Amino acid sequence: MSSFVLQFLNGLTSASTLFMVAAGLSLIFGITRVLNFAHGSMYMLGIYLAYSAIGAFSVGGVLTPVAFWGGILCAAVLVGMVGALVELTVLRRVYRSPELFQLLATFGVVLLTKDLVLWFWGPEDLLGPRAPGLGGAVEILGSPFPEYDLFLIVVGPLILGLLWLLLHSTRWGLLIRAATQDREMAAALGINQKLLFTSTFALGAFLAGLGGALQIPREPAQHFLDFTVIVDAFVVVVVGGMGSIPGAFLAALLIGEVKALCIGIGEIGAFGFGISLPKLTLVVESLVMAAVLIFRPWGLMGRALAVLPDAGEARPLLARNTAATRMAGVAIVAALAITPAFANQYSLVLLVDILIFALFAASLHFLMGPSGMASFGHAAYFGLGAYAAALAFKQAGLPMEISILVGPLVAVLAALSFGWFCVRLSGVYLAMLTLAFAQITWSVIYQWDGFTGGSNGLVGVWPAPWLSGRISYFYLVLLLCGGAVLILRRIIFSPFGYALRACRDSPMRAAAIGINVSRFQWMAFLVAGGFAGLAGALFAFSKGSISPEVLAIGQSVDGLVMVLLGGVQTISGPLVGAAVFTWLQELVARHIDYWRALLGMIIIVIVVAFPHGIVGQLFSRNRAKE
Amino acid sequence: MTILRVEGISKSYSGALALDNLSFELQAGEIIAMIGPNGAGKTTCFNILHGQLRADSGQVFVGDACTSRMDTPAILRLGVGRTFQIAATFHSFTVAENVQMALLARRGLLWNLHSQAGDLCRKEADQLLEQLGMLAHAARACSVLSYGDLKRVELAMALAGDPILLLMDEPTAGMAPRERLQLMALVVRLARERKLSVLFTEHDMDIVFAHADRILLLEQGRLICQGTPAMVRADPRAQRAYLGDNRD
Q1: How many domains, chain B?
Q2: Is residue A363 part of a domain?
Q3: Domain that holds residue B247
Q4: Helical H segments across A448-516, by residue range
Q5: Could you tell me if residue B34 is inside a domain?
Q6: Residues of B at the A interface, defined by Cβ within 8 angstroms
Q7: What is the pLDDT of residues A154-203, one digit of tens each?
């Protein structure tokens, strides 16, 4: 019994931290409508800065309460300033860009921050000091419980109260609430948007920084915290309802307690399987989110975002093939077909990667572009394709040629089941549900040591002898990926593809002419999932081994970056984006230690300079000339 | 022949009664205007007729078929088309492609992953556009059209479904006065040509009295009077509820 009470208290502790991060994220989203991927980085920065600030304030190595609390406050304020800086230099320039581009910009900030942290603090975990005066433990039902955790339990509701006061009894709060409800109207009333946006961003970052800094006595500063925290924070914000602070608090409590409960229950046995719940917290968390979103699509306390009948940017017409583009396509394929004659082994490997990721990006684009459904978890289908092919080959002993087909088949089945839930939602909520499903898939594969090889993955996944040469495998990939991309293109121009674009442009009108919107969108998942699975299967056999990395969040984000780099409203864009991204990554990662920072910088520059993507920009340039 | 029969439908939103035991009939080829102040329940009624909402009680018949429990696609198949208060078209399509989509959807040709959609039903789409005077705009993007032209595209899409009954929610809202008259004259001409019944809502009384065969006056979800324009004009209840304000 006492262990459950303690777990319950633990849940409250983590809920406090979750709330602080999520509240900032929710505030920022409410005002700017930007989904800030860099929010986890602000949290991480908070921990690291607190570590250094406390060290610097401890004169002669003596830790005083002033040094400790001063250090934490100083770290949070510094992070707030970083937030303001990010808003001023990057986001302010992309508010008019499509939603997903803003996301990409914040992702550039994530990469940049990650490498800055590595460069400044090094890769080791940094363990901070205990809080002076709160370093002990109190006895609760016979078990010790840290005093500092009790303090954190109080901090969460305290921050909620302060935020409530700030929003409901100050002029600034009034403006925030007004702008959250209707940004255009607030602007029309003469509210200084720039100041409002910058200050909201600073406050949000401050809260994330504070949440991080307060963790310093409890957990070491680590350079992968940004991703774990941002996923948690997204889940909390989505469950609570975008833009709702009390909702974020409620959701933080729910998620915190569910996690604690998993750890409290520990190992359970069912149907002869031992299931270790502590390892599956992420799965359980995602299931909670999926359940909430299915029954309350706008989160516990959120309201449907006002969607104007003409919402969204005007999308250009699809350019049909002209003689010139057809010639260009043939020329590119011909050039690729003769490369093995003069390319070295290394270039061939890189080209195979590029082709595979081009298909991956094209399949993601099919969902994001024509179907209008942003997927943050597209790696699930890629990874499932890779694993299914590898497992069919290794565990079931099927020949390689068949195994490559098993990949897309399994991906299609996954897309059917995930998609069924996803198409019930739209926009950011849909994107978050795709992320949740991808995280579930990742956890299952990661934990299932006996079958999938767990974190080590699978090795010895080699092509059949007749395809084992670099050149012959290159031709196989060229044939399958090239063919698949052409089929995808064909589908986009078919009645089915047109129907998907119709559903995206105006779901109301589509339904009124008799299109079953959610069924078409469901089938879009099937198509996109299947082709991503094919890319994954080809990837597994090209590398000879796979690890859970192939379906981790990083892989999904890579796909997003490729599509957005190229331009989401063009068909060739994602292919160009995939080529540029894969090539850059290879080129930069081999020669520069801090390649992520460079990549982040490049992304930011591209987003600020080409708000419609590389190819998209070329097209609009041409159109302007005409 | 009765095309539409509404029998005592009621609908409330969390306690507030939007439609209160509403009944009326619509004959083949008839053009009926449904009028009433904002909040009278007109749009709610349209949403129920087109399957976007379920009535709490009462029944709706299209021809002999009871549509109270049908969804939108099934009601469409019975020949009930609709245009919206705010024109809704597909932005990234050309004018012709919009109409082609409606034709393809009507004929169940959308589950096709192979053909080039741009080439299908093009002729029929052009014919419809010609009837609406929009053929010259066929290749233009919908995003660059004027609002009045968008309304015409929407009308063409509704007609592509070969309806026997057309529901038009404020067909002339947001248009310039001259465009309004032109559009309604067009609707009436097409309705007569195609033996089409039309039920429309409208706030512009000039249009209502000029074009409607019969008028239904709603107030707070109740039908308070109905009849020919002359009858409604003379009815004291109508004058009190609605027209009284107009005559000041």
Answers
A1: 1
A2: yes
A3: 1-71+197-248
A4: 449-452, 470-493, 495-505, 507-512
A5: yes
A6: 50, 52, 72-73, 76-77, 81-82, 84, 86, 88-94, 97, 100-102, 104-106, 109-118, 120, 141, 143, 154, 157-158, 160-161
A7: 999 999 999 999 999 999 999 888 888 777 788 888 888 888 899 999 99
